[in-house]
Design goal:
The protein is α+β, with helices and mostly antiparallel strands. It has 2 helices and 7 strands.
Amino acid sequence: MSNFASQDRYASAAQEDRSSPRTRISIPASLRPSGSRGFQTVVQDLSLSGFSAMAINRLHPGTLCWLTIQGMESMEAQVIWWNNSLVGCAFNQLLNPIIHDNLLERWRGSGIFRSVS
């Protein structure tokens, strides 16, 4: 399968997941934008396709970044939006459902909500 076809399939799946439940959570992590130093953050919500996290400095859409949660390998993502010190990112590969569930179990937040977008 060509890289282009693989990206199209991922983009389609990621869009479908944007309407799936996102879990409000509070996970301490670090986020490192491409070409910059990493910084400490808190993941605010998590889904199979992405996350939102605190980011005081503006991160521009399209910026490649890596999210690192203690005890896990870094996960590559792309900035989709930044608004008022909160950044929304899409994982470059969908998060494995088992890893997703394990993170939720470990860091259970205040409940599930549906994204408006």
